[in-house]
Write a structure and sequence with these properties.
Layout (H helix, E strand, L loop, with lengths): L2 E4 L3 H14 L17 E17 L7 E4 L6 E2 L4 E5 L2 H26 L3 H23 L3 H23 L3 H60 L8 H58 L3 H21 L2 H25 L4 H26 L2 E3 L4 E6 L14 E17 H4 L7 E6 L6 E9 L4 E3 L2 E10 L11 E6 L6
Antiparallel strand pairs: 1-2, 2-8, 2-13, 3-5, 4-7, 5-6, 7-8, 8-12, 9-10, 9-13, 10-12, 11-12
Helix pairs in contact: 2-9, 3-8, 4-7, 5-6
């Protein structure tokens, strides 16, 4: 809290001197009339050293850190990208928003341009096609068509009767014979594939025995040669060749053994798949036979009855009121095609244009919002500064309790006080000179001036305090951020 010191009034000094003289018996001497100097307030406040500007930066978007693009101590310019969090989802959102804007813009331009010659030609062709179909409907019903419909009805009724009657004995016998044949084929497959597998197993055993013999022969030759190499004479060439031949024989038989293993595995797989296919065929024939014996299912009977009903409706359609309805439907198709052509060639309505333009604005706003969201995934420098601290780790969420980065502009410095009470701040004016001293450097004193006096005070421990910003006229390189300073406001204000 600032100290408020009041200087002694000169009039009080004179009175004290007069009293002292009276004590020694001196005759009282009239004192000249003194004019009192106005008291002046000496205000002293605590402060701290701060850079010209500083910022504690935090990500506006959650996400794990993907990139840290700067290092502590690095100088950056305003707008420089400092770090990024994962933004793949945001990038996709921008692409989607751009696509929606392109689509809305294209629809708006198409509406303004009106129908193309190709679209008009297609609509005219549809009108002509509807007219042709109407003419065709008028003359396409012949006695032959009606007879074909009656034949279709008889066929549907016969099929329904057959389903209701149930399966014939000849059909059951035929499927039973097919089932017996499938079962015989299954047994044949089992026997054949089992024999093939047994042959492959025997072949593997034989090759394994030959390989063991070759390995034994090579081992005897190898150790005989090692004993001969201990003799004074060189190992004869024929012994070396014999050892190489025996080694090749081992390699050849090892390869043959591997081929035999593959052949055995293939025989086993063939046995499994072949038997599975034969069993599946037996099950399929058995299912057909069971279905035939069980008779028609309810859904089959329903389908057959529906077929009879459809055939009856077809006959009714070809004669009587249904015929008149068909002709009316054909005429309606012509009217619909003509209305579509008229709508296509008419100029666009203002409400439709306004709605299309509104969709473009909405899509543009959505794109801007997606771009802003993507930009929030990148931390940027708000001004030219130096990176002071980085509290980020790749692949980890930025800390919630501390800033992601701290930046500062060290091009100049300032002093901020925060303990001037409402009684002291009234004696401080912007532009007045001050003296600044520092706890860490007692011998250092700097001159400065008041740059700004905050208009709004804050409550602190029962007092109202105001912040004052001071700009030193010169600087000392030994001073550091957040060092404590003592500010003496020289001029004050008369009370």
């Amino acid at each position: 809290m600032a100290l408020r010191l009041v200087q002694m009034n000169l009039l009080l000094t004179g009175v004290l001197l007069l009293s002292a003289c009276g004590a020694f018996g001196a005759a009282p001497t009239p004192l000249p009339e003194l004019t009192a100097e106005p008291e002046r307030t000496l205000v002293i406040a605590d402060g701290r050293v701060l850079p010209k500007r500083h910022a504690e930066l935090r990500f506006e978007r959650p996400g794990s850190v993907a990139e840290v693009l700067v290092q502590a101590g690095q100088s950056v310019t305003a707008g420089t990208a400092l770090a990024r969090v994962e933004s793949a989802t945001l990038e996709v959102a921008v692409v989607q928003a751009q696509a929606l804007l392109d689509e809305a813009s294209a629809q708006y331009e198409l509406l303004r341009a009106g129908a193309t010659a190709e679209a008009v030609a297609i609509a005219e062709a549809q009108v002509a096609q509807a007219q042709a179909m109407a003419q065709q409907s008028e003359g396409r019903i012949t006695p032959t068509d009606l007879q074909a419909a009656r034949d279709e009805l008889r066929e549907a009724q016969a099929f329904l009767e057959r389903l209701q009657r149930g399966p014939r004995s000849s059909e059951v016998a035929q499927l039973e014979a097919t089932l017996s044949q499938a079962q015989s084929s299954l047994q044949s497959q089992r026997d054949l594939l089992s024999a093939t597998k047994s042959g492959a197993e025997l072949r593997l055993e034989q090759v394994a025995n030959v390989l063991r013999d070759a390995q034994d022969a090579y081992s005897r030759i190898y150790w005989d040669n090692r004993e001969l190499e201990e003799l004074p004479d060189d190992l004869p060439q024929e012994r070396k060749d014999l050892e190489a031949t025996a080694l090749r024989a081992v390699a050849t038989q090892a390869s043959a053994l591997e081929q035999a293993r593959v052949a055995l595995e293939q025989a086993r797989l063939a046995e499994q798949s072949g038997i599975a296919q034969a069993e599946a065929q037996v099950r399929e024939v058995q299912a057909r036979l069971d279905q035939l014996r069980a008779g028609a299912e309810p859904d089959q009977l329903a389908a057959a009855r529906a077929r009879v009903t459809a055939a009856q409706a077809r006959i009714a359609q070809l004669s009587g009121l249904a015929r008149s309805g068909e002709l009316a439907a054909a005429e309606a198709q012509v009217a619909q095609a003509e209305a579509g052509l008229a709508e296509l060639t008419a100029p666009p309505q203002p409400p439709a244009l306004a709605a299309a333009e509104a969709r473009v604005r909405i899509a543009r706003a959505a794109l801007r919002q997606a771009e802003l969201a993507l930009d929030e995934a990148t931390l940027r420098a708000p001004f030219d500064a130096t990176v002071v601290a980085i509290n980020l780790e790749l692949g980890v969420q930025p800390p919630a309790t501390e800033p992601a980065m701290i930046l500062a502009d060290f091009s100049s410095w300032k002093i901020e006080t925060s303990d001037l009470s409402e009684l002291d701040v009234v004696a401080v004016e912007e532009g007045e000179l001050v003296q600044i001293s520092f706890d860490a450097l007692p011998e250092l004193s700097l001159e400065g001036e008041v740059s700004k006096v905050e208009a709004l005070g804050k409550s602190y421990q029962g007092d109202v305090i105001f912040m004052v910003t001071l700009l030193p006229h010169n600087w000392d390189a030994r001073l550091r951020w957040n060092m404590t300073a003592t500010v003496t406001f020289n001029s004050g204000r008369p009370e």
